[in-house]
Write a structure and sequence with these properties.
By secondary structure, this protein is mostly helical. The chain is about 75% helix and about 0% strand.
Length: about 525
């Protein structure tokens, strides 16, 4: 076990009575509704209802989506659960309030044509239905322990409510095709990049005899790449509402940050390495602090970039009520942004730990170096996709990264087991007791230790021998599934049905709301 640099802090709110957490959630939604109804001076029940639903959506984003930013850090034990929740809540709220933007597009990703809706009443119910349906689906996904895309949830909501309001012709099907493509593009890119970084770390550091010596050279370079990736990502996505720069400028700013970080961290890594053991655990400790920084960066960028999923429809409803029109863009009032920022933080504090554990512990075993690779993949995939114009989901990218490092470990372990069987094929004449002892040790070994054991076998004078039936049985034992298939199947299934499920819910909610005798 690798020690966290933070003291162990239990997550008190998670251990609270479920009814107490539910009561706190209801109080927050009621306060949002009451403020919209009384303090804004409009006395409008529709705005109060929309504020309540917006608060509900924000809490569900905090409960489900934020886990992708801090889950790997918790799974690797770089952060305790309590500190991870606190860090994410602070940086999510900071990102939303500092860089969340002043104007939001009312129709997410242009998936429907707003010009086909000329009745503000229909538009308001469409937005409210999409918001409520997306929140309900996120709530269900969190309950079953499946991290899903918030963006896809609200896209499905807008799609279903739009079809219910104006028919299938309102849909921009080419945009929907791009979104469907992101179901494959996001996790595959994230997985490949994360696996590539993990393989690089293994080849340049963990497979070396002098691991700390190799780490002194490579870790500052890796941290410089991390700085480039996260600063570029932050400028492109997290701060786009504050500064409007092109890709080249973002890249240059990130590159400059990387150079500075290389100079700063080189002596720091050398100093830290003096106190570590020359093994995997010692190397992993060098990644602990950078991993915490990465979690903070990801949370800030997520709060700045994805808060619109919570408050965008609410801002659109507020603008439509105020101006009696159908806006294509809407200003985000401060009170709306506060509902989003506080809601995400409250949802994370009350219900986030369940999904954080799923991402960090229930897919594959993570340590600091593996979690570092996942965080790198999250930032670099967004940069690559933005440059190529590919639609991606930050949720799918992060989880793709977790699966990527797990499948790489599984591949390497199977490969090393196959190498052992080849060696056995060429040798005979060892006592079964000694053979079984070696095989048991090999089966329990890590991927790194397996390679060392194989080198010893090649040099040893002892000879190994197994018959064909025994080798087949052993291969089944060595096919250790380092990625839990149950988690994989559940998450993929949730991804595939997110848009259809939220669309169906939104269509149903719209049909229930549109004829309500409510004064606008």
């Amino acid at each position: 076990m690798v020690d966290s640099p933070f003291p162990a802090t239990p997550h008190k709110l998670e251990s609270a009575n479920p009814m107490a957490r539910l009561a706190l959630s209801i109080v927050f939604m009621a306060l949002a509704a009451a403020y919209a109804y009384f303090a804004l001076g409009q006395g409008n029940w529709v705005l109060a209802f929309a504020a309540m639903v917006g608060a509900y959506m924000a809490m569900n984003i905090g409960a489900n989506d934020v886990a992708n930013n801090v889950g790997p850090a918790v799974g690797s034990r770089a952060l305790t659960l309590g500190w991870a929740v606190l860090l994410a809540a602070i940086f999510e709220a900071a990102g939303a309030l500092i860089a969340g933007g002043e104007v939001v597009s009312t129709i997410k990703n242009g998936i429907i044509d707003p010009s086909r809706i000329d009745d503000p009443r229909i538009f308001i119910w469409l937005m409210a239905s999409a918001l409520l349906a997306g929140a309900l689906w996120l709530n269900f996904a969190t309950w079953v322990g499946a991290p899903v895309s918030t963006t896809h949830s609200i896209v499905g909501g807008v799609l279903g409510a739009g079809i219910a309001a104006a028919g299938v012709d309102i849909v921009n099907w080419s945009k929907m095709g791009e979104i469907a493509a992101s179901w494959v593009i996001s996790p595959v890119l994230g997985g490949l990049i994360a696996a590539g970084f993990l393989l690089l770390i293994k080849r340049t550091i963990l497979f070396k005899e002098d691991r700390l010596g190799a780490a002194r050279k490579m870790v500052p370079i890796l941290l410089a790449v991390m700085a480039w990736a996260f600063v570029t990502y932050l400028v492109m996505k997290g701060l786009k509402a504050l500064i409007d720069v092109d890709f080249g400028t973002s890249f240059a700013i990130g590159f400059g940050a990387g150079i500075v970080v290389w100079f700063v961290t080189k002596p720091w890594v050398a100093a830290q390495a003096e106190f570590q053991d020359n093994n995997r655990k010692g190397v992993n400790r060098l990644f602990a602090v950078p991993l915490i920084v990465a979690a903070a960066f990801l949370s800030f960028a997520h709060g700045a970039n994805d808060v619109a999923n919570a408050v965008g429809p609410l801002a659109a409803i507020a603008d439509s009520l105020a101006n009696a029109g159908v806006p294509s863009k809407a200003p985000i009032p401060l009170w709306v942004m506060l509902v989003g920022a506080l809601g995400i933080s409250i949802g994370l504090l009350l219900y986030g730990p369940k999904l954080i554990r799923t991402v960090g512990n229930e897919i594959t075993e993570l340590d600091e170096s593996r979690a570092f690779c996942v965080a790198m993949a999250a930032a670099i995939t967004v940069i690559v996709a933005s440059k190529l114009g590919l639609p991606v989901s930050s949720t799918h990218i992060a989880l793709g990264g977790v699966f990527g490092v797990g499948f790489l470990r599984e591949y390497l372990k199977k490969r090393y087991a196959s190498m052992l069987h080849e060696i056995m094929d060429r040798h005979t004449g060892i006592q079964n007791q000694e053979l079984n002892r070696f095989l048991m040790d090999f089966g329990k070994a890590s991927v790194d230790d397996m390679e060392a054991m194989l080198r010893q076998v090649k040099k040893a004078d002892d000879h190994f021998g197994l018959n064909k039936k025994e080798r087949k049985r052993l291969k089944k034992i060595y096919r250790e599934k380092l990625v839990k298939r149950s988690a994989l199947n559940k998450i993929v299934a949730a991804w595939l049905i997110t848009v259809p499920a939220s669309a169906f819910l939104a269509g149903l909610v719209f049909m229930l709301l549109k004829d309500l005798p409510v004064q606008f």
